[in-house]
Structures are given as structure tokens and as C-alpha cells.
Amino acid sequence: TLMKAATSGELDAPQGFTKHARRMLDDARARQAVDEFISQWMRFDRVLTMVKERRAYPLFTRELAVAMTEETRRLAADLVWNNKNFMDLYTANYTFLNADLAQLYNMPAPPEEFAKVNLPADSERAGILGHAAFLALTAKPADTSITARGLFVRESFLCQQVPQPPPGVNANLPTPTAERPMTNRERLGVHLSNPTCASCHTLIDPIGFGFEKFDGVGARREKAKVEIPSFNRKEGTKTVELAL
């Protein structure tokens, strides 16, 4: 039908174009296409297969990962199929939660699975960037990743390409010690002081800093837990909490 309309010139007129666009949107396959687009864009394949350190994130389960993808899927569907403003994808003060996600967000369980709920004013969450799917995807197994979060925003949301690190560059960060425990922000300062690293990290790290109040699975936090390695193997590591 679409090819016939194109051949006849019907799509050249605005009313013909709109007619066929709406006809296709009314097809059930359109919802499948939107779901698939969101799944690929937000890398649900990675969310569903990511591994988190159980001691650091005891709430994380396979079921929670599935719920994370469903939250993002439902927000996108709500905007598309209810003809809302696309910018609400980034600014929405509401979301769709089940009991597991509500516990992670420190909110009351909704009356039904994935009910639409308003976010508390002090949650500091808004839209897709406040979703656990994004925050957990762009984190390490046992910690956050300022650089990964900033890079994802640059490349997947702003469609910008950040160059790869130059060959042979030393990407190691200072190791926290008992004498000098450091937050991730402090450790990443070495990137900004090194001209070789700074050219790219000035583009991505400041964005990532903005998400440090959310841990590696998307839960809100006021302090960062820093693992201090011990030279004594029997003592293992020591955990200290530092203000963000």
C-alpha cells in the first residue's frame, strides 16, 4: 500500500503523507517497532546480561534487571502512544514501577505492577536519565563509572563521537589508601590534569559527575563507599564512606 501511494505521488502532498503515517501507526506492528527501537537504543541486551557484585548491591537480581527495562519501555510508550512531548523523555517527573523497583528507589510499592507514579520532589530523578536501566548499564560490577555515564550521554543521546584514547596512554587511576581515601571524582582528577587525557575527558567526565548521587544499580545515595586495599592479605579490604 505504501509503495503504491509513493508511485502514484500521493505521498508528495502533506495530507497524503500524514494519512499513511497515521495508517501505519495504527498497525500493531508499530508498537513492536517502537519497543525494538528503545531496546536497541538503550542496550537492553546489556542490561539483561550485566553482572553486579552481590555484596555491593544485594538488591540486584535478574528480575530487577527485567523490571529496569520495562520501566524505560513504558515511559517511551506512554509518550509515543499518548501523543505527549518527546522532551518529557528527559524531564518526566513520573515513572512506572513495580515492587522491586520501588524498593530500589526507596518509594512505596505501587498498587499494581508498573503503575504510573509521581517521583518525590527530592528524588533528583527525571526522565530516562533517572532510570535504573541507564544508571546500572553505565556502571561497573561493583562501582559507578563517571566516564561511562558521560560517554553514553554524549554518544547515545547527543549523537556525538568521542575519540578513542590514544595508543599507549596510561589509563590507571590513583589507588585509594587509608591515608588518602578518594572519591571517584577525586581519582578522575588525574584525567583532567593530563593534557593527553583532558581533551576527551573534559567532554565526558563533567556529565558523569552529575550522576554520582546514584550508585551502580541506580539507587540514591548520599555517600560513596570506597574500598581501601590492605597490604596484609589476611585483613582484606576496608570500606570507608565519603561525602560526594
Overall description:
The chain has 244 residues and is mainly alpha-helical. 45% of the residues lie in helices and 9% in strands. The chain has 12 helices and 4 strands, in the order ααααααβαβαααααββ. The chain has helices spanning 2-8, 14-25, 28-41, 44-49, 62-81, 88-91, 99-104, 132-137, 146-157, 184-187, 189-193, 195-209; strands at residues 94-97, 115-118, 223-229, 237-243. The strands form 2 sheets. The protein has a two-stranded antiparallel sheet with strand order 1-2. A two-stranded antiparallel ribbon has the order 3-4. Strand 3 and strand 4 form a beta hairpin. The radius of gyration is 22 Å and the shape is globular. It starts with a helix and ends with a strand. The model has no long low-confidence stretch (mean pLDDT 91).
Briefly, what is this?
The chain is mainly alpha-helical.
Cα shape: globular
Give the mean pLDDT: 91
Radius of gyration: 22 Å
**Helical content band:** 40-55%
Q: Distance between termini?
A: 58 Å
Main pleated sheet: 2 strands, antiparallel
Low-confidence segments, ≥5 residues, pLDDT <50? none
Compressed to H and E, one letter per element, the order equals HHHHHHEHEHHHHHEE
Number of H- or I-type helical stretches: 12
Q: Largest beta sheet: what is the strand line-up?
A: 1-2
Helix and strand layout, with pairings?
Elements: H1 2-8, H2 14-25, H3 28-41, H4 44-49, H5 62-81, H6 88-91, E1 94-97, H7 99-104, E2 115-118, H8 132-137, H9 146-157, H10 184-187, H11 189-193, H12 195-209, E3 223-229, E4 237-243
Helix pairs in contact: 3-5, 9-12
